[in-house]
Design goal:
alpha+beta, three-stranded antiparallel β-sheet, two-stranded antiparallel ribbon, 7 helices, elongated, binds iron/sulfur cluster
Length: 174
């Protein structure tokens, strides 16, 4: 080892000492900035008219590697061939926050929020039902999408008794 190498090493040490800034944050008074793609607590979402997005297809339950999700679906009253989640539970003590359920959902009914302060004394409080998951979605995703019937007229065409059914393009032209 030469004197030059020692001097260069000391230079790095001195620079660190002179420009030292503590990186410890005094949580909970100070909080870290979360990355844009942070995967926090899961939530169920609604359309802008308050309707639940979930169609009870069970795909999220099937894809979840930790068996967190339990879905029991039923037919939507007065809207044949359309289903919804009659019961929807998540046991968040098992969740890996892998995001597979969000990716699998065909109607974007699930979202990952930026909430992470979910430490509880009783782990049963992390067994969330549909109403709790919808409430998380309501506060984390205030900007809601229009119902699928209004986004894609073909969906409305097959959902004949939908009360607010928009006209198809061909119907508006005539
Ligand atoms: S984030 Fe992953 S582990 Fe958690 S519920 Fe979704 S699929 Fe399951
Ligand atoms: S959240 Fe999505 S994937 Fe899961 S049951 Fe509902 S519609 Fe299907």
């Amino acid at each position: 080892m030469t004197f030059y190498e020692l001097a260069m090493g000391m230079k790095v040490t001195l620079r660190h000492l002179l420009h030292y800034r503590p990186i410890t944050l005094q949580y909970p008074h100070e909080k870290r900035l979360l990355p844009e793609n942070y995967r926090g607590m899961l939530a169920l979402l609604r359309y802008d008219d308050g309707t639940e997005k979930c169609v009870g297809c069970d795909l999220c339950e099937a894809v979840c590697p930790s068996r967190v999700i339990r879905v029991i679906s039923a037919e939507v009253p007065n809207e044949p061939i359309k289903r919804y989640a009659k019961e929807y539970d998540m046991d968040m003590t098992r969740c890996l926050f892998c995001g597979l359920c969000v990716q699998a959902c065909p109607v974007d009914a699930l979202g990952m929020t930026r909430e992470y302060e979910w430490a509880v004394y009783n782990k049963r409080n992390l067994h969330l039902n549909k109403e709790q998951l919808l409430a998380i979605g309501d506060r984390s995703f205030p900007n809601r999408e229009k119902r699928l019937e209004f986004q894609h007229p073909n969906v409305a065409f097959f959902n004949l008794p939908f009360p607010g059914q928009p006209l198809k393009e061909s119907q508006t032209l005539t």
